[in-house]
Amino acid sequence: MGSTTAENDHGPEGVAATGPEGVGRRDLIKRSAALGLITVPTMSVLSACASGGGDDTSEDSQGKTSASNPFGVKKGSKLDVVIFKGGYGDAYARAWEAAFQKKWGVTSTHTGTQEITGKLQPRFNAGNPPDIVDDSGAQQIPIDVLYKNGQLLDLAEVLDAPSIDDPAKKVRDTLIPGTLDAGMQENKVVALNYIYTVWGLWYSGKLFKENGWEEPKTWADFLAICKEAKAKDIGGLAHQGKYPYYINVAIMDLIAKTGGLDAMKAIDNLDPKAFVGSDAAKAGVEAIYEVVEKGYLMPGTNGLTHTESQARWNQYKAVFITSGSWLENEQLKQTPDDFEMTFMPMPLLPDSVMPFEAIRAGSGEPFIIPSKAKNLPAAKEFMRMMLSKEWSTLFAKEANSLTIVKDGVDTGVSLRPGTQSTVEVSKAAGDNTFRYLYTEWYSEMDTAIQNASNELMAKRIQPAEWLKRAQAAVDKQAKDPDSKKNHRD
C-alpha cells in the first residue's frame, strides 16, 4: 500500500506502499540501494523515454482502434506483466491475465516477485521495461525517480477513455474521489494506486476481551492500556523496526489529527515550519517517544522486520501494531483462528483538530506503464479493464481488499473480518480522511525522516533532534527547483 510499506505501500506508502503501499509496502537500506542503482540514462535514451512512449510502440503490437478498442489492442500480441507478490499475492493478476487473453487473444508473460528493483532496474536502464508493473514493496523503484528519468507514461489517455461499465463516463469519473492524487507527479497521473487503503492501529479482539479493555479514543487511554499490558509482560506497541515507514504512520497520523489538514499540507508543501515550529509535529513525536521512554514497546521490536514483528504480535506479545489494511492478508498463516484482528483509528492527543474517527485513507499499490513499453495498446487496455467492476470484483475475491473503483465490488463478495473492520472504520470516518503525498513526491526526504524515526525509537535521539532532522530533510528538498512543481492547496 501501500500502499508505499515494507510489503505493500502501498501501502505505502504504504507502503505500500503502496503500500505501501501503496504503498505501499520499506527497508531503508534497500530503498537507499534502489536510489543508488537508478542511473540517469544517456541523453539519447532519455529523450526517447521522455517522449511519452507513443512513438516507441512496436508495429507488431498496434491494432486498429474502434469504440470498443480505443487503444488498438492487437490480437496475437504479447503482454509483459510484473506483479509485486506481497500481502496481496499475485493470483488476482493471473485471473486478470486469463480474462484479458479470453477477450483480446493477447497472451501474458507473468512475473510475480518481491525483487522489483533487482529484476526491473537493469531492464529500465537498458530501455527494455515490462509493459505494466505493480511497483511496490521493500524494493520498489521510487516513482519520483522513474518520473524524473522520463520512464513513466502519462496515464491521462487511460483515465480519459470511456469506462467499460458505462461508456458515457470517463474512467476517471468512476473512481473514488482523491484516489488518483497519490500517483501524481507535477500534476500528471503517472502511477495508478489501485487499492483503497487505510492506515492506523490494529489489535486482537480476543486479547481485549480477556483483559476487559475498550478501544482507546484518547492517547491517555492508549497509554493506560500499554501500562496494564507491561505489568502483564505484554508489550504495549509493536512496530516493524527495520522498516521505520510503519512507525511514521503513527507519528504522521498524530500530527495530522492534532493539527488538522494544515499541519499535513505544511509537510507536503515543504513549509519552513513543517516540523520545527509546528506545535502539532512536536506533540505527535513526543507522544510516540513517551511510549519508548516508559518501556511500552514490545521487547526487541526495533530490530525486527515487518513480518517478524507482526508474527510476535499475532502471538499476543504486544497489544497494538501500526499498519495498513493489507495486514490481515499478510498475516493469514500466522494469525490464530480466534485472534479477532481489528483495525482502529489513531487515538487523539489533547486539543486535536480532527475527531477520533478520522483516518489516513487513500490509494496504495502503484501500477505503472513504462513509457518504453513494447505493447502500449494492450498495457493501456489492461489498465482500463483493471478499473472495471468485473476486474475490481476479481481482485476483491483473490486479494481480500477493496479497489479505488466506486462501488466496484459485487455485494456477494465476503471480506475477511479484519479487512471488514477497515471498511466499517472507513464508513465511520466519512469525509474525515487525510493522506500525505510527500512519500510519493519526495522519496529521498521520506527516507531521511524514516532514518530519524529509527534513531528516535532506539533512544539514540530525542524528539527535539527528530524535529530538526525532519525539518532539515524538508529544507533540503525545498531547495530542489523541481519541488515547486508539486503543491497542495
Task: Characterize the structure shown.
With 489 residues, the protein is α/β, with parallel strands linked by helices. The protein contains 18 helices and 11 strands. Strand 1 (78-84), helix 3 and strand 2 form a beta-alpha-beta unit. Helix 9 packs antiparallel against helix 10. The longest helix is centred in the middle third of the chain and has 24 residues, at 245-268. It is globular, with a radius of gyration of 22 Å. The protein starts with 27 loop residues before the first helix and ends in an 11-residue tail after the last helix. The relative contact order is 0.19. Mean pLDDT is 89; it is low at 1-56.
Features:
single chain; 489 residues; alpha/beta
Oligomer: single chain
Q: Return Rg in Å.
A: 22 Å
* Total of DSSP H or I helical runs spanning 4+ residues: 18
- N-to-C SSE string, H for helix and E for strand: HHEHEHEHHEEEHHEHHHEHEEHHHEHHH
Number of strands: 11
Termini distance?
24 Å
Name the overall outline.
Answer: globular
- Structural class of the helices, strands and pairings? alpha/beta
Portion of residues in beta strands equals 5-15%
Q: Write down the overall mean pLDDT.
A: 89
Biggest sheet layout = 9 strands, mixed
Identify low-pLDDT runs.
Answer: 1-56
Helix content: 25-40%
